[in-house]
Amino acid sequence: MTIVPQTPVQGPTLRVVVVNGSPSEPSKTMGRVDVVLDTLKGMLPIEVSRVDVYRLGAGFTGAIERDDVTPEVEESLRLAEDADLLIAAAPVFRGTYPGMFKHFFDLVDQYALANKPVLLAATGGGDHHALVLEHALRPLFAFFQALTIPVAVFASAGDFDGATLLNPRVYGRIEVGLTDVVDLLRARATGPGTPREPANGHPDAKPLALSPSASTRTETRPASPAGRFS
Predict the structure, then answer these.
(1) pTM of structure
(2) Could you tell me whether strands 5-6 and 153-156 are parallel, antiparallel, or unpaired per DSSP bridges?
(3) Running DSSP on this structure, what letter comes out for residue 135?
(4) Does 85 reside within a domain?
(5) Is residue 126, in this structure, part of any structural domain at all?
C-alpha cells in the first residue's frame, strides 16, 4: 500500500483512516469526507488511508467471525484498529447505515477502538436523516468505548452538486468540530512508521505488511455525479 503523507504544517503525523460505507464511486459520502480531510490537513500533518467496505470481496461478506476473513480483509481491519483518528462515513438508507458498514465493525476487535477519536459522518436524502448520527452511529461506537468527537457531520442531498459539497454551513460545522478537538488529535499523532501495540483481544498479533488492494487505498478522488445511494 502506498501512503502519501499530507504535511502543510509541522509536527507528528496523524494517521487518519476513513471507513467508507458507500457503495457508489464517486459518492456524496466521500465528497464530504474530502472536505473534512482538506480542513484537517490545514491544522495537522496527516497520513490518510481509506477502507471501502463494499470492495472487500467475498473474504469479507462470507465471514461470520474474525478468523474467517482473508489476509486482505484482516489488513483492512487492522488498519482501522490502528488509526490515530477514525472517520466513520456512511450514507443513510432505510433510516440507518448500510448493513455492509455494520458488518465491518462486527469484525473489529471489541476493545481495539477504546478511547480512539472517531469522527462520525453521514449523508442522507433529507435533513430528517440527520438523526442517524445520534440514534445509530454514536451508540455503535459507544459499544466500542470509542471517543466520538462531539460535533458530528451530516449533509443532505441538497447540499451537493453531484458529489461536490457546496453548503457553507456544513463547511463551518466541519471546521468547528475539528477545531474543538485539534489539541487532542495532535496529542494522539504518532507519525509514520511508529510501532503499534497489538489490539486488545489479539495479544499475539503481529504487524502486517500493507500492500495495494482495491478496497484499501490512499488517493485523491475527483468529484463527479454520484448514484442514488451514496
Answers:
(1) 0.79
(2) unpaired
(3) I
(4) yes
(5) yes
| Domain-located, residue 95 | yes
**CATH code, domain carrying 137:** 3.40.50.360
174: containing domain: 15-193
Domain count, the chain: 1
Angle at 191 between CA 149 and CA 151, to 5 degrees: 10
Q: Burial code of 192-203, b = ≥16 C-beta within 10 A, e = fewer?
A: eeeeeebbeeee
Going from the C-alpha of 135 to that of each of 106, 154, 184, 210, the distances in angstroms are: 18, 13, 25, 35
Write b or e for each residue in 89-116: b if 16 or more Cβ atoms lie within 10 A of its Cβ, otherwise e.
bbbbbeebbbebbeebbebbbeebbeeb
- Whether 119 is in a domain gets the answer yes
Q: How does residue 50 score in pLDDT terms, banded at 50, 70 and 90?
A: very high
Cell of 160: 451537493
Beta strands at 46-52 and 14-20: parallel, antiparallel or unpaired:
parallel
CB 153 within 8 A of CB 177: yes
Per-residue pLDDT reduced to its tens digit, 157-169: 888 998 999 999 9
Give strand pairing partners of 165.
160
Cis peptide before 150 (omega within 30 of 0): no
Q: How far is CA 7 from the centre of its chain?
A: 19
